[in-house]
Amino acid sequence: MSFYRWDGDALILDCHLQPKASNDAFAGLHGERLKIRLTAPPVDGKANAHLLAFLAEAFGVAKSQVSLLSGQQSRQKRVRIQAPVILPAELGLTARPS
């Protein structure tokens, strides 16, 4: 199993969040999930909003193209990125199937 899958032209990511980190970054794998470090605190949805903005920038899409599918109150999250323009090289993602 992988931390990502394609659903048509949308990319689904299974993530593990580390809030209140010193910087925003992809941090390898945490079990079967992509670990993401964020500077935002885990209060009042700030970490979730920061995660969506971070992923939108990393994948070259508008914030409206990134949505949280599950894990609103958890460190374990599933995120949908609609039609990503960029696939960050450090993640080793394969392009969507034709």
UniProtKB/TrEMBL annotation:
<dbReference type="Pfam" id="PF02594">
    <property type="entry name" value="DUF167"/>
</dbReference>
<protein>
    <recommendedName>
        <fullName>UPF0235 protein SAMN05216288_1643</fullName>
    </recommendedName>
</protein>
<dbReference type="InterPro" id="IPR036591">
    <property type="entry name" value="YggU-like_sf"/>
</dbReference>
<dbReference type="InterPro" id="IPR003746">
    <property type="entry name" value="DUF167"/>
</dbReference>
<dbReference type="GO" id="GO:0005737">
    <property type="term" value="C:cytoplasm"/>
</dbReference>
<comment type="similarity">
    <text>Belongs to the UPF0235 family.</text>
</comment>
